[in-house]
Design goal:
The protein is an alpha+beta fold. The chain has eleven helices and ten strands. It folds into three domains: 115 residues, Butyryl-Coa Dehydrogenase, subunit A, domain 1; 110 residues, Butyryl-CoA Dehydrogenase, subunit A, domain 2 (Beta Barrel), CATH 2.40.110; 150 residues, Butyryl-CoA Dehydrogenase, subunit A, domain 3, CATH 1.20.140.10. The chain is 53% helix and 15% strand. The protein is globular and about 80 Å long.
Amino acid sequence: METEREETLALLVEACRRFAREVLVPAEVAVQQTQEIPAHVVRGLRELGLFGMTVPEEYGGLGLNAFEETSLVTEICYAQPAFRSFFGTTNGVGTLGIINFGTEAQKLRYLPRLASGEMMASFALTEPDSGSDAASLQTRAVRDGDHWVINGTKRFITNAIHAGVFTVFARTGPKELGANGISAFLVRGDAPGVVRGKPEHKLGQHGSTTTPLDFNEVELDADALLGEEGRGFRVAMMALDGGRIGIAALALGCGLAATDFAADYALQRSQFGAAIASYQAIQWMLADSATELDAARLLVLRAAWLKEQGKPFTSEASMAKLMASERAHAACDRAVQVLGGYGYVRDFPVERFLRDVRVTRIFEGTSEIQRIILSREVMRRHSRG
């Protein structure tokens, strides 16, 4: 049975590799121009089942574990990461809460439609005054008879304009309780009082929409509560731990694509009577990128394997996300350097690789937040002697 699953995964990975190179890469220029994912790309993503990668098979998804998902995401992100963001938020932070904390009724209501791509999901945690300090969020949910009423503002919400359901985090207890006073809710995208703002104009990841989100007297039924009241921060942190593995795989794909392009260019570009690939300065940049990206890949796979085995993986996910995002950014920067002046103009894709990968050092927790998580774990181990 395991061999059959491995063979199926190998076929799916190869299908994603071909799709990225034959469909997604040729569509990149159109995405940059229109800021939208073309309809034929969306159809292809649905046909591959990528909207339901992590959704259990009994709800219509592929039921992939973290290790398998990472293999697919790395291949898809050989093309610009906006494609992954289009379906990745649904697979990751958008559905992990439902899968792990949802009631059976909530799962049946949402997961089949999310798995098919009929509906998309989004994750609403960040606020104007609470980014890295997520526990200080101010959005509030108040009981009103058999209902909840939510008011507040969220910021930088990926795929908000497409989402049919949001996982929203709001304060239900006194502010003094901090993280213990936060609850999670499933909010329909068409609920009265849900207001989407104008998409942000971003440095990179064009085609992936990021939008402010307002909740104005949004009334929810009691069964919109996701998990236990006052335990929503746990839902958020669990989702982010898993999401960090996905972001690490995304960054890795960007770095690999940039390095491949730079290597091909170096073999073709001639200066001083020889291909620039023959010069040690170029060779060392490519060697550093290849080594660092391979090290990052191993960290990503380790975190994914631990998650698959049901073992603690918070520190390992932070290591993977930190290493992959930082080293992929360095690899993209080196790719620009290899191309020289051509790397700085939009006739070649490496400047876009650099713009696109930059945000991986920010979302799902900045590099600095990952270092805080890791340093606390180091200190905890040493304090135990």
